[in-house]
Design a protein that fits this description.
Layout lengths: L10 E6 L6 H11 L11 E7 L5 E3 L3 E3 L3 E2 L8 E4 L11 H12 L3 E4 L3 H7 L7 E2 L6 H7 L4 E2 L5 E4 L2 E4 L3 H15 L1 H11 L21 H16 L7 H8 L3 H12 L3 H19 L4 H8 L4 H12 L3 H8 L11 H11 L8
Helix pairs in contact: 1-5, 5-6, 7-8, 8-9, 10-11, 10-13
């Protein structure tokens, strides 16, 4: 892993530009990887605007994007990101599609935001693979690219080192997730705090959630209180029945309302929060693995290891080796302090309104 502030070995990100890309997605990519936050603990990034030639790229609203690298630079990138499109049927230039195919063959990670999935499909990179796009474009993607397995309910997904995301805010979620995957939870949280956005939303969450009606406000408040209670007591053996009782609902009613409001089930949400808490402990402390598992609420190191393998495709020890910010011994950390830190960082996430 590259050290924060190491400009010479900065993480190289390529923003692929051609006429028709969305200005919003360009702004998101630039905000995440194009701002120097090394003084706040974020890694050093080298973001380049890559296009077939140096000609300014027109965007909607009278905006233009000035490329600073040509497509040859893609071979040097650690990550390639494709913005969404103003018109999802916009055809990418043939040199762009060819360059994306070559980059994928080299094993470079490629991500597309929103309608950028159509660009990947045009390149044939989504053939036989799972992908997602904005909920309003799902039927169009299926119709125009039937060889793609379109997943209807997700914020972002990955298949063979190719990432796709749903619309607008989900692009932010994917960008932060890619930072988290490459550099750890602390790096993603530092960028999220700077952007005043949620540091952690899972890709499996539904992308379209109906807003509660005024009559449901009381239930919604009860659900928020239950989630806040869970974050303060992650180290305890919480169950859905416990949280339902905290909300004053039956377990069945609680699960139904919880899923309708957050787009995920109570059990999946609780597991996500436990994994996030364990990641923070692994990065910030040198606590023994059994203690990390206990404070994150997994109960045992074996259980924690199983969940890390299934959700993160790594082990707790490997995660610590890659992302630890605490090479020296640390003082004991009380469980209440850990829960408070988790609650503070999750304040702008889906667990709180």
């Amino acid at each position: 892993m590259r050290n924060p502030g190491d400009k010479e070995h900065a993480y190289r990100v390529a923003l692929v530009a051609f006429p028709g890309i969305r200005a919003f997605d360009v702004s998101v990519i630039t905000e995440v990887w194009g701002t120097d936050r090394t003084d706040r603990g974020a890694p050093a990034f080298d973001l380049r605007r890559v296009a077939p030639d140096p000609t300014p790229v027109p965007m909607r609203g009278g905006l233009t994007l000035l490329p600073d690298r040509t497509l040859d630079w893609l071979s040097r990138a650690d990550l390639i990101v494709i913005p969404g499109l103003d018109d999802h049927l916009t055809s990418a230039p043939t040199p762009v599609l060819d360059a994306l195919r070559r980059a994928h063959t080299r094993g470079i990670t490629i991500a597309a935001l929103c309608g950028g999935a159509f660009t990947l499909a045009q390149a044939g990179l989504l053939d036989g693979r799972r992908a997602i796009t904005h909920w309003n474009l799902i039927d169009f993607l299926r119709a125009h690219h039937p060889q793609v397995t379109v997943v209807p309910d997700a914020l972002f997904i990955e298949d063979h080192n190719i990432w796709t995301a749903a619309g607008t805010a989900a692009g932010i979620d994917l960008c932060l997730h890619l930072v988290r995957q490459a550099h750890g939870a602390e790096a993603a949280a530092a960028i999220a705090r700077s952007m005043v956005t949620a540091p952690f939303r899972t890709g499996t969450q539904a992308q379209f959630i109906e807003h509660p009606t005024p009559r449901a406000d009381r239930d919604s408040d009860a659900l928020v209180a239950a989630r806040e209670h869970a974050l303060r007591h992650l180290h305890e053996p919480l169950t859905v029945a416990d949280l339902a009782a905290r909300a004053g609902m039956s377990a069945r009613s609680f699960a139904r309302h919880f899923t309708a409001e957050t787009g995920t089930t109570p059990l999946r949400w609780l597991l996500d929060q436990r994994i996030a808490a364990a990641q923070k402990l692994l990065e910030r402390t040198d606590l023994p693995m059994p203690e990390v598992a206990r404070r994150a609420g997994f109960g045992s190191e074996v259980t924690m290891r199983q969940h890390f393998a299934s959700r993160l495709a790594t082990s707790p020890r490997a995660y610590r080796a890659a992302f630890s910010t605490t090479p020296r011994s640390t003082a004991p950390v009380c469980a209440a302090a850990v829960s408070a830190a988790v609650s503070a960082e999750a304040g702008s996430s889906p667990i709180a309104r």
